């Protein structure tokens, strides 16, 4: 039986994390494949890049559709691709509980802060305005809450006195690109378990 190492990408914007994952696969640093890229916005820049890279591309607009009806259309495309993991790369849609239950512990997201601090939108600005000296990014599984799923990996980013918000955002994004690739590699290459909220690797997969 051939091991399934495929990813399915959901995005709504430029997809910089998707591009970082693509580059890691292209260079051989991440042993995975991308089974498809889907956006709720047909003109999303990330979707244009996916076409350029030669991936199967799907646009399923959400406007005018009931949320569950939209998700069922998305699920049909994902199920046809049969990926091992679903990777949110700036997908600006809240996923419903039925979708999350169906793909439990297979949906990944990256958040630009060290959860549980600064969940929700504009996390970089939240951290900057709060005056923290350390922030970062978190790769986590998606659950029914807002940025509350089990944490897979985190990377810390210092906040310097001379930083502007744009400086901090750029430094966090650089670590996001590294963290997402690393976390996907852990999930594909290691045996792991989730106990309660705690994610733990238990060895290299055979």
Short description:
The chain contains 6 helices and 9 strands. By secondary structure, it is an alpha/beta fold. The radius of gyration is 17 Å and the shape is globular.
Give the CATH superfamily of the largest domain: Formyl transferase, N-terminal domain
Radius of gyration: 17 Å
Tally of alpha and pi helices: 6
The CATH architecture of the largest domain: 3-Layer(aba) Sandwich
The total of beta strands comes to 9
Q: Can you identify the CATH class of the largest domain? A: Alpha Beta
Strand order of the largest sheet: 3-2-1-4-5-6-7
Q: List the secondary-structure elements in sequence, H or E.
A: EHEHEHEHEHEEHEE
The fraction of residues in strands falls at 25-35%
Task: Determine the CATH topology of the largest domain.
Answer: Rossmann fold
Domain count: 2
Shape: globular
Chain-wise SSE layout:
Elements: E1 6-11, H1 16-27, E2 33-39, H2 45-53, E3 57-59, H3 67-81, E4 85-88, H4 97-102, E5 107-111, H5 123-130, E6 134-141, E7 151-158, H6 165-189, E8 190-195, E9 198-204
Parallel strand pairs: 1-2, 1-4, 2-3, 4-5
Antiparallel strand pairs: 5-6, 6-7, 8-9
Helix pairs in contact: 1-6
């Amino acid at each position: 039986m051939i091991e399934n190492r495929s990813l399915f990408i959901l995005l709504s914007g430029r997809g910089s994390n998707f591009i970082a994952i693509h580059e890691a696969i292209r260079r051989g640093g991440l042993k995975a494949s991308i089974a498809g890229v889907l956006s709720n916005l047909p003109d999303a820049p990330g979707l244009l890049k996916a076409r350029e890279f030669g991936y199967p591309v799907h646009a399923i607009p959400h406007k005018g559709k009931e949320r569950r009806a939209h998700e069922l259309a998305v699920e049909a495309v994902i199920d046809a691709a049969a990926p091992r993991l679903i990777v949110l790369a700036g997908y600006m849609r809240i996923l419903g509980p039925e979708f999350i239950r169906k793909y439990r512990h297979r949906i990944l997201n990256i958040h630009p802060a060290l959860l549980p601090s600064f969940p929700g939108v504009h996390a970089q600005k939240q951290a900057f305005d709060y005056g923290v000296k350390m922030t970062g990014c978190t790769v986590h599984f998606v659950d029914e809450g807002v940025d509350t799923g089990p944490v897979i990996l985190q990377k810390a980013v210092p906040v310097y006195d001379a930083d502007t918000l744009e400086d901090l955002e750029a430094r966090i994004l650089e670590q996001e690109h590294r963290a997402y690739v690393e976390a996907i590699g852990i999930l594909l290459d290691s045996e792991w378990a989730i106990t309660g909220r705690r994610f733990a690797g238990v060895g290299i997969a055979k």
